[in-house]
Amino acid sequence: MRPVTNPIGRFVIYVSLIVFLLWSVVPIVWITLQSFKTQRQAAARVPLFIFRPTIDNYGRLWLDSTPNNVAVLAFGLTGVVVLVLLGVFAGRLPIPRNIITAGILGAVIAIIWVIPKIVDTAKFYDYFVNSLIVSVGEVAVSVSIGCLSGYALARYSGMSGVVMLLVALAFRALPRMAFLLPFYWMGRMSGLHDTYFLVIIALVAVNQPFTIWLLRSFFMDIPREIEEAAMIDGASRLGAFLKVITPIMWPGIFSTALFTLLLAYHEFLLVRILTQSKWTLPLAMVQFIGGAQIPGQIPMQAAAAVSSTIPIVLVILFFQKQLVKGLSAGAVKG
Amino acid sequence: MIALMTVPLVMAVWLSLNFITFRTLDAPEFVGLANYQEVLSDARFWQALRFTLLIASISVPAHIIIGLVVALLLDETSGRMRSVLLPGMLMPMIVVPVVGTLMFRQLFESTGLFAWFFSEIIGQRFIFTEYSVKALIILHTIWASTPFALVIFFAGLQTLPGELVDASAIDGASRLQQLRYVVIPHLRSLIVLEALIALMDFFRLFDSVFILTEQNPIFKADTVMTYNFRVAITVQRLGKGSAMAILAMIGIFVVVIPFLIMTYREQIEER
Predict the structure, then answer these.
(1) Do A181 and B232 touch, CB atoms closer than 8 A?
(2) pLDDT tens column, A72-85
(3) A-B C-beta contacts closer than 8 Å
(4) B112 vs B4, higher pLDDT
(5) How far apart are CA B30 and CA B19, in angstroms?
(6) B149 in A contact zone (CB under 8 Å)
(7) Environment class of residue A192 by beta-carbon count within 10 Å: exposed (0-12), middle (13-18) or buried (19+)?
(8) What is residue A63's DSSP assignment?
(9) Which CATH architecture does the domain made up of B47-240 adopt?
(10) What is the pLDDT averaged over residues A269-279?
(11) Contacts with B, A 12-31, CB within 8 Å
(12) Which of A10-19, A165-174, A188-197 has the highest mean pLDDT?
């Protein structure tokens, strides 16, 4: 439509947008504020907006005892900063991209592994690591299966798309319980209960139709001629898929992976039922839901909430454009 | 893959026909349809179902309307403005649902921001009762599900052919008429899709209810899923829980199948 030019109209538009923005972010801003307060400040009846921030809550959440070795800490922080800088400026270094990516990944894993050995981390750190393992595992399995089946569906039959869409929607409709109780029972019977393996498999089963559907709509965009050309030049179908299609598809695969990551990271009920000790962050939150009745609880709760949100928010905001593009491509093209 | 998805379902049906608790996991006792009978005559189940339907009937239209309006407004703004606004607006979708609910709850607890507003403006303390908790759950579902609707409607608006709008303007259509006869029909399939997805999501709503009620039966705010969880895990009636899940599944399909057929027809027409 023609843009509104009437000044009053534009004013109304901006005001409404800002109201909606506030409605979206106020809960998040408020809990972030709370997490930097002491218990007394947080429990004040008249909300405080100006106060002296404290990071004690985060300290208590992540660490069992305060580290006394400042040098080690400083060293670790420097390492992280260097890694981030490396990640940002990687494009300008005269080293092949793959090596840099592999290096950064390796370093991140090493850091995550080393931290508990240096400082005395609390249970929350373990939950964080569990979350990482489960979500990354789920994304890896689900996207690789999704790519193959999405590709097959996009190439081999005209109606497959519609059927797949329906199956994806139908499986989305299934109550989780109908899935989980059998998984729970199987896990108990086979001794797989409380393992990462079972959680990841169950997550894949629940989210897979959606992944396939999304990927299929991306594959549909790639003209068949491209791979035919590759095949005439002597590539096998698999070769054409891996060397020609996958690179073109990369943005699509990436946004699907992001969305799957979001779903896996958010999962609560599934993990709650299928594990006892391998808690992920959403589950760890539950131990803080005691509410205002328990003394000292509000800021801790807030700190836990913020801590468990920050990783995923950083990842998603960093790649926000791809996620939005992916979602809209999937939804609009059907 | 298909095995991974269908085997559990078949097993769910089988489990639902047996009497199983955690202690008799390896010795299920076959009881036939007794579990189903028990679920259907369970007043709490019907109560949970009613509340679930209430949530769906309020939240589905509300979040679609809000999402649509905001998408239309956002379409009016410049690219830079959008890149500032959009990340903030997407936050509710990114935040872990459990955490999002906690955030909501903290706002309304006696120390929270809204509780304070509430007591300042109305002069009454905000307390968690059956009704206020239910209202909070509904409010939260709207909060959490609007961004997704916003994103796909906004993407849909970008594909709106400009000539169509121009032509309607030349024909003398007012802004409202354009909206009614050009824009909404263009977005129709997306709106149906979103309604469908939201309907399913609300039907299996669990996290937010779990957090807001702390499973407290006083609030009578069980949804089908939380009650199911309580039966299957807390009370350890695996068989009855499965029966309930199967019933819920049948229920949701009865609601959803007309939508599915509609989507199917539309997709075929497009081809």
Answers:
(1) yes
(2) 667 777 777 777 77
(3) 273
(4) B112
(5) 6
(6) no
(7) middle
(8) B
(9) Orthogonal Bundle (1.10)
(10) 80
(11) 13-14, 16-17, 20-21, 23-28, 30-31
(12) A10-19
Q: Residue-wise over B199-229: b if at least 16 C-beta within 10 A, else e? A: bbbbbbbbbbbbbbbebeeebebbbbbbbbb
Amino acid at B15: L
Virtual torsion, Cα B248, B253, B255, B259, nearest 10 deg: 150
Which positions in chain A touch B190 (Cβ < 8 Å)?
331-332
For B88, which of A21, A34, A183 is closest by C-beta distance? A21
Rounded Cα–Cα distance for residues A173 and B256 (Å): 8
> Which residues of chain A lie closer than 8 angstroms to B5, CB-CB?
171, 205, 208-209
Residues of B in contact with A201 (CB under 8 A): 4
Closest to B190 measured CA to CA, from B155, B215, B233: B155
Query: How far is A327 from A322, CA to CA, in rounded Å?
Result: 8
B1 reaches A (C-beta below 8 A): yes
Query: What is chain B's Cα-based Rg?
Result: 23
Between CA A233 and CA A223 the distance in angstroms is 17
| CB distance B131 to B76 below 8 Å | no
- The answer to whether A320 faces chain B, any CB pair under 8 Å, is yes
**H helix or E strand, kind and range, residue A65:** none
E strand or H helix at B241: helix B238-270
Using CB atoms, pick whichever of B8, B95, B256 lies closest to residue A309: B95
Read off the pLDDT band of B65 (50, 70, 90): very high
Residues ≥6 apart with Cβ < 8 Å to B194: B64, B67, B148, B149, B152, B153
Q: Give the mutation candidate from A1, A142, A319, A333 for the B interface (greatest B CB count, under 10 A).
A: A1
Q: Which residues contact A264 (CB under 8 A, 6 or more apart)?
A: A134, A135, A138, A139, A203, A207
Residues 6+ apart with CB under 8 A from B215: B226, B230, B234
Assess contact for B227 and B205: CB atoms under 8 A.
no
**3-state DSSP helix/strand/coil % of chain B, to nearest 5:** 80, 0, 20
**CA A331 to the chain's CA centroid:** 20
Query: In this structure, how many other beta carbons lie within 10 angstroms of the beta carbon of residue A9?
Result: 13
Q: What is the largest CA-CA distance in chain B?
A: 75
Task: Round to whole Å and give the CA distance between A131 and A129.
Answer: 5
- What interface predicted TM-score (ipTM) does this complex get? 0.79
Q: Is A157 on the interface with B (CB under 8 A)?
A: no
* CA distance to partner chain A, nearest, from residue B55 (Å): 16
Q: Within chain A, where are the H helices?
A: 7-35, 39-42, 56-62, 70-89, 97-118, 123-156, 160-173, 176-190, 196-220, 224-232, 237-239, 246-266, 269-274, 281-286, 297-318, 320-333
| Distance in Å, alpha carbon of A305 to nearest chain B alpha carbon | 5
